[in-house]
Amino acid sequence: MEENLEPNKDVNNEISDKSNEQKSDETIKQTSEKVFNTNDNSLNSQNNSAPKVDKKIENVPATTISKPIKELPIEKKPFQEFINSYLIPSFKEEINQRGLEINNISLTNTNRPIAGDKCWVINCEIKDTCSFWLSFEKDDISSLKSISLSKPNQQPSIIESFLIDEKRITLKLIISRVLQRLNGQKLIGVN
Asked: Could you state, in order of their start, the residue ranges of all structural domains in the chain?
């Protein structure tokens, strides 16, 4: 009788292994993102020689990675924001670094000195030194610009084109050229 039991054990183990493999394959097909162990505890108690098999199937969906939105360059910001938030404060800082003081600086839509046409004008009065008027034809930093200078308590007598050959107008360029014009007239320093 013992001989009859031995073959039945082998047949039962083979049937059990095949049915477990089929169940495991079906489970893997149904779910593609989980990890499954094809050996269960009942199989291990019957046959300890079978190796554990972990099958992992990953199905990573394609996602679009959005690029970080670049901040607009300050020169592309609206005209009044650029002038009031960047140009005027930067110019004040440059003048203060030179040991001078600004009494008044403002942007207004008014008549340009000497010419008299209406445009955007930055009027700046540097204490005991000079005044200047930087004019923009339109509310755009790339529009035609002019500058007028005068000594304290005087009216300007000359209007000059300003940054007419520059293709790319930047904050630093505007400030450096205004300072260059003031230096050229020996108003804020020597040449």
From this structure: 2-56, 74-184
**Is the pLDDT reported for residue 130 higher than 70?**
yes
DSSP 89-156: HHHHHHHHHTT--EEEEEEEEEEPTTT--EEEEEEEEETTTEEEEEEESSSSTTS-EEEEEE-TT---
Task: Give the pLDDT score at 152.
Answer: 83
- The structure tokens 């190796």 sit at 51
Backbone angles phi, psi at 106, to 5 degrees: -155, 160
Q: Hey, which residues does 36 pair with through a beta bridge?
A: 55
Beta carbons within 8 Å of 181's beta carbon, 6+ residues apart: 132, 147, 149, 160, 162
At 42, give phi and psi (nearest 5°).
-65, -35
Beta bridge partners of 118: 111
The predicted-structure confidence for 171-188, as pLDDT tens digits, reads as follows 999 999 999 998 888 777
Distance (Å, whole) CA 78 – CA 61: 41
- Cβ burial, residue 50 (10 Å; 0-12/13-18/19+): middle
